[in-house]
Amino acid sequence: MTPLALQPVALAVFLALFVFVTVLGFLAARWRRGDLDTLHEWGLGGRRFGTWISWFLLGGDLYTAYTFVAVPALVFGAGAVGFFAVPYTIIIYPILFAFFPRLWRVCKRHGYLTAPEFVRGRFESRSLSVALALTGILATMPYIALQLVGMQVVLAALGLQGSGIWADMPLFIAFVVLAAFTYTSGLRAPAIIAVVKDLLIYATVIAAAIVIPMHLGGWSKIFAAVPAAKLTLPVPGPHSLGSYGAYATLALGSALALFLYPHSMTGILAASSGRVIKRNAALLPAYSLVLGLLALLGFMAIAYGVAKNPAYAAGFAQYKGNFAVPALILSAFPSWFAGIAFAAIAIGALVPASIMSIATANIFTRDIYKAFIKPHATDAQESGMAKLVSLIVKLGALAFIVILPATTAIQFQLLGGIWIIQTLPAVMLGLSKLRLRPAALLTGWAAGMVIGTAMAASTAFKSAIFPLHLPGGFLAPGYAALYALIANLAISLVLSWILNAFRSEAAARNDPAARFEF
Amino acid sequence: MPQPARRRASLWRVLLILPILAVVAVGCFNRAGPSLWGFPFFYWYQMLWVILCSVIVGFVFLIEGKAADAGDDA
Predict the structure, then answer these.
(1) Residues belonging to chain B with any Cβ–Cβ distance to chain A shorter than 8 Å
(2) Predicted complex ipTM
């Protein structure tokens, strides 16, 4: 098998763009200058991002490099089911609109920087808060690692494939750069770089949606090249929800989980007002349109027959379906444009990886370090700790991807979604006056974690879809995260109701909910 | 202590459920025809709902106006 060819022109364009965003990342420290020795400024940009910057920041945060590689890869390999990313990124916006401006307001008023911090204040429970903090950190780590997978694929497509210690050198350099600008500029860096990344992504996708169908003789030719079995979902048999259940629950569960991830929370809390968040709920779907077109790159790759091209055999051998998009870009575009497209993907990895490391650092600092280790930490100590943690988190992700096979990161990320959704009852129901009790929420959380993990384990961590057998011989295959969440919600609500029945009137009047104005 | 003006979520918010219902009812759109500009129904239907979702959320935002955010700093 011939190794992937070096692409000198594409590489030059790629490097130029990479250097450009690196400079931007460091300059970001001076933008809307604030005291970066406070966590509020370093880790949340001083809550000053208006509609446009929030749009770019959240767009860069939610639609990651891994999405750009993996979603079309799934469509390429499995067909219609991979398109679930579109309904998923539709469902998130009504949820964003309805719940998160309220969370923003409460967090602003009380100075909270993270979701576990809100929960600690709202339920006056340190154990519930720390459970949520650990869940957030655990779920985010593999997500950062996956951004590196996206970057690895692109670097390989550029022909940067060494052996031995050189194999991971380009990735290592990219990561040092990422760590350095995140350390100096905090959330301002990904916010600025996101603007560049998004412009590049939009250019790439729009060009692909116009140029490639022209090459291939129109969209109908592209869809005609796709085997009928991949074009739509298989129709379920009798007594089963079949693929429909899987598709709908994947979309719904992923959407419910999304804004609970620490990095999405950070993006939301950095907005300058609740109205900025609402406006973005109406404007962000523009990215979903792009994501839909991106997903269809998977079908274009089928129509182009990239998998049969011997020039890419080495790429497919190593990265499987994840190589479909890079191979398509190399075959459909001139070399200089391939450089732009690859830069878009690689920079698309830097932005979320940076926000994710900041978000985990905020959580560690506020909800573990300050809550348990050093309650009287000064502002400077807080931001110093956060900067240090952001470095450690990234090193961990790098080690993860260099030492373990990529499939492990993917399996952990699958579990991450199942885990993070278990924080929903405390965070989202915590935004209401419901008299939920921390002990009940903690029990529900623990049950959800165990049930969800067990469901994933029953598929040997290969699939997030659990074949649930209902009474009457009815089969309802669905996203394990959603099923586990239902158990969690039921336990949280019922147990709270029971605990409240035995509560003295004075204690009930003293419920912390009374101190929150929703 | 002065209480901030009471915020009320309007009934218009019921509309927000529409995009969600439209895309989880998979059985209603899992077919190839009729196609539009070469896109099979399954694909253009869901892409159309991206746009409708944006329109609906934007509509609720505009019709609720500033009153829904009383007490906000901006």
Answers:
(1) 3-4, 9, 13, 16-17, 19-20, 23-27, 30-32, 35, 37-40, 42-43, 46-47, 49-51, 53-54, 56-58, 60-61, 66, 69, 71-74
(2) 0.86
Would you say B53 and A93 are in contact if contact means Cβ atoms under 8 Å apart?
Answer: yes
Asked if CATH classification 2.40.30.10 holds for the domain at A8-27+50-421, the reply, yes or no, is no
pLDDT at B46: 94
Give per-residue pLDDT as tens, A299-323: 998 888 888 888 888 888 888 888 8
Please state the domain extents for chain A: 8-27+50-421
Q: Which residues of A touch B56 (CB under 8 A)?
A: 94
Task: Quote the CA–CA distance of B17 and B56 in Å, as a whole number.
Answer: 10
Give me the DSSP letters along A426-441: HHHGGGS-----HHHH
Q: Which two tokens stand for residue A357?
A: 């490391």
pTM of the entire predicted model: 0.87
Task: Quickly state the pLDDT bin for B3 (edges 50, 70, 90).
Answer: very low
Helix axes A115-123, A85-110, angle to 10 degrees: 60
Rounded-to-integer distance, Cα A255 and Cα A251, Å: 6
Residue A419 tokens read as 């885990």
What's the angle, vertex CA A375, arms to CA A371 and CA A378, rounded to 5?
A: 120
Cβ distance A98 to B13 less than 8 Å, yes or no, reads yes
Cα gap A21→A276, rounded to integer Å: 26
Residues in chain A: 518
Residues on chain A touching B72 (C-beta within 8 angstroms): 105, 273-275
Spatial distance between the Cα atoms of A387 and A373, rounded to a whole number of angstroms: 17
Residue type, A281: A
Q: What number of C-beta contacts closer than 8 Å exist between A and B? A: 130
Interchain proximity B20–A91, CB inside 8 Å = yes
Are the beta carbons of A292 and A86 closer than 8 angstroms?
A: yes
Which of A93, A104, A296, A432 to mutate: most B Cβ within 10 Å? Answer: A93
Question: Above 80 in pLDDT, residue B4?
Answer: no
Residue A75 Cα, gap to closest chain B Cα (Å)? 12
Residues of chain A with pLDDT under 50: none
